[in-house]
Amino acid sequence: MSNTNWKQYFDKKAETHGAAVQSSDYFNEESFFMQRDNTLRWLGEVKGKEVLDAGCGVGAFSEPLVQHNTVYGVDFSVKSLEFAAARGLKTMSEDLTALPFEKGKFDVVLCIGVIQLIEQYEDVIKELARVTKPGGTLLIQTLNRSSVQRKLLKLFEKSKKFDRMYAMNELKQLYVKYGFEQIEFLHIYHPFKFVTKSSGEGMLSDMFCTSFAIKGRKKR
Ligand SMILES: C[S@@+](CC[C@H](N)C(=O)[O-])C[C@H]1O[C@@H](n2cnc3c(N)ncnc32)[C@H](O)[C@@H]1O
């Protein structure tokens, strides 16, 4: 789908499901909370920081960070942003390929479930890296291209919903290219309720995790 179609798609979802996690296309609430809890725990304590939730949707993923931080939420779905604002995010309607923030503004940048929708994903990663403070963290969560389950599902797919999926190493190379170090992975195995961690590729996690998160520290 093109960018305009995705914008309309998520506006419509927010009109139908309101603040619920279905607006952000999660399989169900259980799957959303399992991913959010594990990913935020893995991110570690965040207090008194400037946080960017890039592609925040209705703001449900970064909501736990709002109480102790300033959380900016950027998304091109204006309808979704209404619900993100109600959750306490400072919202801005923008395209992620050109962010209206100065270099190095954010201590923590999150981009959850977004880059699989974006053809110009490298432009987005470059922008996210630009606005991450030296010593700050960039955490991206997306779909694992090498997953056996996803390969099987693809065989039965009637229409191609997602434009892209990613190999873990592909994103690691971009993290290195845009100045990150201490790169780590969280492997997520949907619909099972467990995750594993690693600092790189491993045969089993590569084959079986359905999604993964990658985080790295911007070099000082
Ligand atoms: C699957 S939802 C995930 C929402 C949220 N991150 C979460 O995990 O709950 C993807 C979001 O990315 C937004 N998005 C996709 N492409 C975008 C772009 N180029 N610029 C801004 N937002 C975009 C969509 O509008 C949608 O709200």
TrEMBL record:
Pfam families: Methyltransf_11. It comes from the Bacteria. SUPFAM superfamilies: S-adenosyl-L-methionine-dependent methyltransferases. The keyword DNA-binding does not apply. InterPro entries: Methyltransf_11, SAM-dependent_MTases_sf. Residues 52-140 form the Methyltransferase type domain. One of its GO terms (molecular function) is S-adenosylmethionine-dependent methyltransferase activity. Keywords: Methyltransferase, S-adenosyl-L-methionine, Transferase. GO terms for biological process: methylation. This is Class I SAM-dependent methyltransferase. The lineage of its organism: Bacteria, Bacillati, Bacillota, Bacilli, Bacillales.
